[in-house]
Each structure stands twice: as structure tokens, then as C-alpha cells.
Specification:
- The structure is a homodimer.
- Chain A is an alpha/beta fold and 340 residues long.
- The first copy, chain A, has helices spanning 2-11, 16-25, 27-38, 54-60, 68-80, 103-109, 125-133, 147-154, 158-175, 197-209, 226-236, 256-265, 293-302, 311-325, 332-338, and strands at 49-52, 85-86, 89-90, 120-121, 139-144, 179-184, 214-219, 245-249, 270-273.
- A 9-stranded parallel sheet of chain A has the order 2-1-9-8-7-6-5-4-3, with helices on both faces.
- In chain A, α10 (197-209) links the parallel β6 (179-184) and β7 (214-219).
- In chain A, α11 (226-236) packs across α12 (256-265).
- At the A-B interface, α1, α2, α3, α11 and α12 of A face α8, α9, α10 and α12 of B.
- Chain A: Belongs to the HMG-CoA lyase family.
- Chain A: This is hydroxymethylglutaryl-CoA lyase.
């Protein structure tokens, strides 16, 4: 906790010294920002794929555990809402993640909509085999851009974790199962503080080279701002083609939509989000985590970008899961609409 | 790079909160905001207390605040009478509110947009004579709760009128927060054809979570003045329970992260936010405050 406080103090409590350092180190980002303005709105993608992580990332990070039927119904409602990728569950050992203990039941219980993908997390070969056995047709692996985070989260170095994943991607290749790679802490780490964009690029490159079809870059503690996002994406897109990149922004500091917007301007066309903004921040008690899918969709549709998502149906799914969790939605669009 | 933040919490914020706070609390809030380095703090409103009882202590507030050198404390003045009362109470800057929607104007101040502008011309004339600066606001620039879509050209016309009659700055308000960055870009293109971009400000509401994205695109288009409200004070009168003003803390966090200077001391700003939320007995709407306080 102390480490987190120090980190927050360094980056958020902008003392005059801190501000000056920031402004000295970021004039390039600002100039680019204004430059981008010249073509603002003209370089946005026509279509954006939304990767819905609510049922896994969301529910895993909620205090209340929901019954399997609720999870299944949520996933079915999300399928109905037109989402094309819905992260269904996780094949991490239930010892570590009890909320996902019903992984097999969920995989067997959901109604798979044609054309929709239901990826699941697989931390290692054992998890991968169990996942395929349970019917998974796509899996996801998680790397980190921070050594300390890797150590604290999965008890090994970044390199060791990547070696472990290579075993998974090999097996997946043989089984014809696509693999999605995640990189955590791309804009900051709760333990290390600042994270170098080049480190992120290295990890992303490794995941891509070992066979991941897409790399999702996660601002795990939501501390990133658009300048940092720009810098990071510039570094990563030198190693991985931009159409194989996705952004996974957390809204802990309210920066998610601004970060997503700048990512879109830089050619990103895949965005991760969580219905109703499910999933708090494990590093800042009570703070929010995932950005709400409803709010992302609202922005994208307002920009004239297609997503295939039916917003009212999506909001129904959000209302359903919030009811089941007995919690208020974190989506502003849902808050605004429900009250009218 | 520099962005001027216009802090509207003590007026726009408190006016739209259910709970009324005592005068001492308002004064203390404004003093804390001055300490936090904000260069412009909207202090109160000289609209008749009959309409806005929350601002009935307007004179007391003006007399009670510690004016920090270099900081401006504008007040709202809906007409000449309000203007005169404001100046008498010590106001050195005033603000007037036009709308880009006829229906909104009718429902809000019971006259057409044109009639309201004529009324304001009296104020700007008097203000010019008295050497008092006037800031103009345009409401409903990205949508109206009654009319729905609002034409960017209509906004541009109203902004142009306000600018021509002497307002030094025009704040464009997304009153119900429905705007998205594409609409913001379109709007600013239209308005900046009539008013120089350095005389424009954006006043984004976060009702649909779009505020920071809208502000970002405005910055990209050369806007360098942003309105916001400490702790995100001020709900949305048109969507019960929904949020309204964007939180100053969240705006400052983004700007500082971008390397843009604001003169604001974020920890002191958060202290001010914590103070007013305690007094209002409500949780902050600022995500930065939520993230930081819980640690």
C-alpha cells in the first residue's frame, strides 16, 4: 500500500516541481496533440471492435460472487446486444480466483451466438487444456510490462511468464485456437511507478511473435493520460502492426474515454470495456476500474463509428448484472438514461 | 502550453445541488479554491433569490471572500438590475447567459433568444461604461433537452452576438452533456469562423461520461479555456440523479498529465473538494478524488 501511495504521490500530486518536470518532458506530446487537432475526426476508424470483458475481468474484480446461472444469463444478454467478443471466464486455478471456479459450467451453459467469440483466460498449459476440453475456441494470456507487477501477480519474472506462455501458444497453434495477448501496466505500475514505453513494446512484440493475433494494452491502474497513451502507442506500433493492437483502459482517474479517443486517432480500432463498468481497482480500494461499455459505445456511435452493438440491449444487460450484484452501475450513460 | 480553468463550483455547482449550504461554507470554499491556484472562480449569482434561493446570500458572499490578487471572481447577472447590484456588492467581472435553443430560452428565462440578447446588450453597455468585464455563456451547444439537436450555425450566431456586444470570452456549454467529440469538433469549426478561438471556452457536462474526451478534442482545436466544477458539483436538472459539471480535479489531472500548465495545486484543490462534499454530505463526483482518497 505504501508503494502505491508513493506512486500516486509522484504522479498525481503535481507539486510545482512535478508540474515543471512534466511540462519539460512532454512538449512533444502537446505539440502533437495540437497537430492531431488539424486532422481531428478525419482519421478515425469506420468500425471499432469492442471486446467485452465484464463477465471475466469485471466479475473477477467484484466483491460479490454471482451464481453460474447469472453469469450465463449475462453472457447471453451480451451476445444479444451485438457484442462480437465476450470474455467468458478464466481457467486460472479456482484456488487463486474462486469467482471463476464455475468455469466449465459457464462454458457449457452459454448460448454461443454465431460469429461471436468467447475467449477465456489461460495462464498455462494445464489451463489451456482444460479450456479446450470445456469447449473454448479462443484463449487469452497475460503478460506485464513491469517486473515487480509480474512478480507480485503471478510470482515470476516477465521473461519466465513469456516462456510459460510460449508453451500455450504452441499448443494453441496445433489445436487451431487463436490466442489474444494482454500486456498489463502499460501506462504505470502500482509498484514500479513509471513504465517505459519501450518495455511495453518489447513485451508486446514477444507476444505477437509467439503467435498472439492481437495484443491488448492495459492501463491497469488507470493513471494514464492522452500524452502518455500517444507515446506508448508510438513505441508499440513500431514493433506490432497497429491493426493487431487494442487498448484496455481503466477509468480509475476518469481518463479512459480521453485515452481511447487518442488511441482511435492513432489508428487503434479495438477497444476493451466492461458492461456497467464492472470490476473495481484492486489497488485503490473503492475506486473504479474498467471503463463502462455503455459509455464507450455512446462515444463511438456519436462519432459515427460502427460497433454492431445495440445500446438499449447493452444497458439491459448492465441493469441485470447490477441488480444481481446489488450495486449501482458505474456507467454514466446508464445513470443518465435510467433517471429520465 | 497553458490552459485557464474557470472554476464554476461555488455558483453553477452549488446552485444545482439539492442541499443548501450556509454562507460561511461558500466563502470558505471560495477561499480554498483561491488558495488552490485557480485564476477564475465564479462566486455567486445576482439572479433574483425568488428564482434561485441558493444564491440569496450573494452580497454577503461577495463581501466575505478573501480576494487573492490576480484572481477573478465573476458573478452572474441576468439583467441591468442584477448588474447594478453586483457592481455595488463589489463585482469586477460579470457573466451573461444566452442559449442556442429557442425552446430552452423560453423555458429557462421566459423569452426568446433574441429578446434575451437585447436584454444583455443593456448589461454589456453598462459594463463597458463601468469598466467591468463581461463573459458570455451559450447553453445547449451540443443538444437541448427540449429541442433535441442544435445547429452549430445557430450556436455560432449567438456566440457572435455576445462577442460583438462586448463579451471578452464566450463559454460554450454542453448543458445536458450529450455531446461527443465529433459534434464538438463540428461545433468549434462553426463557432471559430465567427469568434476568434482564443476568445472561446468549453463548458462540458459529464452526464454521459463524455466530458474529458470532448475537452481533449477542444484542446486539439486550439481551445485553451475550460470550465469545470470542484468535485463535479452540480447535478443535471434534466435527468434526476445524473451528474452534471465535469470535475475540476479530473480535468486538472488530464491537463497536467499532458504537460499543460494550469497554475492549480491539485492536492489543495482536492482539499477544497473534500471540504465541500463534507458540508453537502455527499460523495465527490471526481474520479481522481475517489481514487486518491481510498488509498
Amino acid at each position: 500500500m505504501a508503494a502505491v501511495l508513493r506512486f500516486v504521490n509522484r504522479t498525481c500530486f503535481g507539486s510545482r516541481m512535478g508540474l515543471q518536470c512534466l511540462s519539460l518532458s512532454r512538449p512533444v506530446a502537446v505539440a502533437k496533440l495540437v497537430q492531431d487537432g488539424a486532422s481531428a475526426g478525419k482519421t478515425l476508424p469506420e468500425r471499432v471492435k469492442i471486446v467485452e470483458v465484464g463477465p471475466r475481468d469485471g466479475l473477477q474484480n467484484e466483491k460479490t460472487v454471482v451464481p453460474s446461472e447469472v453469469k450465463i444469463h449475462l453472457i447471453d444478454m451480451l451476445s444479444e446486444a451485438g457484442l462480437s467478443v465476450i470474455e467468458a471466464t478464466s481457467f486460472v486455478s479456482p484456488k487463486w480466483v474462486p469467482q471463476m471456479a464455475d468455469q466449465v459450467e459457464v462454458m457449457m451453459g452459454i448460448h454461443r451466438r454465431p460469429g461471436v467469440s468467447y475467449p477465456v483466460l489461460t495462464p498455462n498449459l494445464k489451463g489451456f487444456l482444460a479450456a479446450v476440453n470445456a469447449g473454448a475456441a479462443e484463449v487469452a494470456i497475460f503478460g506485464a510490462a513491469s517486473e515487480l507487477f509480474s512478480k507480485k501477480n503471478i510470482n515470476c519474472s516477465v521473461d519466465e511468464s513469456l516462456q510459460r506462455f510460449e508453451v500455450v501458444t504452441k499448443a494453441a497453434k496445433e489445436a487451431g485456437v487463436p490466442v489474444r495477448g494482454y500486456v498489463s501496466c502499460v501506462l504505470g505500475c502500482p509498484y514500479e511507478g513509471k513504465v517505459s514505453p519501450d518495455k511495453v513494446a518489447q513485451v508486446a512484440k514477444r507476444l505477437y511473435s509467439m503467435g498472439c493475433y492481437e495484443i491488448s494494452l492495459g492501463d491497469t491502474i488507470g493513471v494514464g493520460t492522452p500524452g502518455g497513451m500517444t507515446e506508448m502507442l508510438q513505441a508499440v506500433s513500431r514493433e506490432v502492426p497497429v491493426n493487431a493492437l487494442a487498448v484496455h483502459c481503466h477509468d480509475t482517474y476518469g481518463q479512459a474515454l480521453a485515452n481511447i479517443l487518442i488511441a482511435l486517432q492513432m489508428g487503434i480500432s479495438v477497444v476493451d470495456s466492461s458492461v456497467a463498468g464492472l470490476g473495481g481497482c484492486p489497488y485503490a480500494q473503492g475506486a473504479s476500474g474498467n471503463v463502462a461499455t455503455e459509455d464507450v459505445v455512446y462515444m463511438l456511435h456519436g462519432l459515427g463509428i460502427q460497433t454492431g452493438v445495440d445500446l438499449p440491449k447493452l444497458m439491459d444487460a448492465g441493469a441485470f448484472i447490477c441488480c444481481s450484484l446489488n450495486k449501482k452501475t458505474s456507467s454514466k450513460v446508464a445513470q443518465a438514461t435510467c433517471k429520465l
